[in-house]
From TrEMBL:
S-adenosyl-L-methionine binds at residues 45, 70-72, 95-96, 123-124, 138, 205. NCBIfam families: carboxy-S-adenosyl-L-methionine synthase CmoA. It catalyses: prephenate + S-adenosyl-L-methionine = carboxy-S-adenosyl-L-methionine + 3-phenylpyruvate + H2O. Residues 68-164 form the Methyltransferase domain. PANTHER family: CARBOXY-S-ADENOSYL-L-METHIONINE SYNTHASE, TRANS-ACONITATE 2-METHYLTRANSFERASE-RELATED. Belongs to the class I-like SAM-binding methyltransferase superfamily. Cx-SAM synthase family. SUPFAM superfamilies: S-adenosyl-L-methionine-dependent methyltransferases. The gene is cmoA. GO terms for biological process: methylation; tRNA wobble uridine modification. Keywords: Methyltransferase, S-adenosyl-L-methionine, Transferase. Catalyzes the conversion of S-adenosyl-L-methionine (SAM) to carboxy-S-adenosyl-L-methionine (Cx-SAM). Its EC number is 2.1.3.-. This is Carboxy-S-adenosyl-L-methionine synthase.
Length: 254
């Protein structure tokens, strides 16, 4: 198992000083510190990345396509790449942030592996998928408008071969107000333990409030089943961050 996450960039101090409100965007300043930001902000991220390699290895099929949607700097893309041991498989990373993709290209070039990676700068809402065995949405769906999520997942499920999967990692919310408060507090303690100040935590919270829209585990499960996946497994949870494995059954087990 490998752990080849991009990691040589700057420390995230983007919210360290008081500043006027603006909605969070994946621009050049975020791209520069992104590896540090996501590692210190998402509990379990450093576990989920190497597990994407393990899961890809289990489900990739010869002659199929693999997709990493919202690939950012390519951490999940490279994990998938190292789980693919067929040379007739294609791997495509898609992101609509040119600033992220520009850096992603460098990380892909630095990664010592023969499988080509195609990077596309486009909105995944408009992307075409076909003949897929493994697709990853690692903390990306949460940024897609809620009314567009079902359509996107349905297109992914339709493009997925029998026996193929979608790896879906998301920040979630909870029905119970008490659990929501507890999990949010624990998440903020995780950020504090990683060196973020109260000001950084509260300014980041305000910046993502209108752009990162978490849903409940039940909403995700139902939507994945509606989309056409046959089984949904919660394979990872740390506080309010989860990763699901949605599986399309093989025809003969239906
Ligand atoms: C939290 S990051 C994903 C992290 C990455 N998958 C990883 O494992 O390191 C979310 C990414 O999704 C991208 N994104 C958000 N909405 C998108 C859309 N509609 N189409 C394409 N990319 C999108 C953002 O630009 C950003 O790079
Ligand atoms: O929920 C938060 O507080 C976060 O900072 C999470 C999160 C994410 O889940 O993508 C938000 C934006 C950045 O992409 C990095 C981390």
């Amino acid at each position: 198992m490998t752990d080849r996450k991009p990691g040589d960039s700057g420390t995230d101090r983007l919210f360290a000083h008081e500043q006027p409100h603006s909605d969070f965007r994946f621009d050049a300043s975020v791209a520069r510190v992104f590896p540090d930001m996501i590692r210190r902000s998402v509990p379990g991220y450093t576990t989920i990345i190497p597990m994407i390699e393990v899961i890809t290895e289990q489900y990739v099929q010869p002659g199929s396509h693999c997709y990493d949607l919202g690939c950012s700097l390519g951490a999940s893309t490279l994990a998938m790449r190292h789980g693919i041991h067929y040379n007739d498989v294609t791997l495509t990373g898609i992101d609509n942030s040119a600033d992220m993709l520009e850096r992603c290209e460098h990380y892909v070039a630095l990664d010592d592996h023969s499988l080509p990676v195609t990077l596309r700068c486009e909105d995944i809402i408009e992307s075409r998928f076909e003949n897929a065995s493994v697709t990853t949405l690692n903390f990306t769906l949460q940024f897609v408008a809620p009314e567009q999520r079902q359509g996107l997942l349905t297109r992914i499920a339709e493009a997925t071969r029998p026996g193929g999967v979608l790896i879906l990692s998301e920040k979630i919310r909870f029905e119970s107000e008490q659990e929501q408060d507890t999990q949010t507090r624990l998440h903020h303690e995780f950020k504090r333990a990683n060196g973020y100040s109260d000001l950084e935590i509260s300014q980041k919270r305000a910046a993502i409030e209108r752009v990162l829209l978490p849903e409940t585990l039940q909403q995700h499960r139902e939507r994945l089943l509606n989309a056409g996946f046959d089984q949904v497994i919660l394979w990872y949870q740390c506080f309010n961050f989860v990763s699901l494995l949605a599986i399309k059954s093989t025809r003969n087990s239906q």
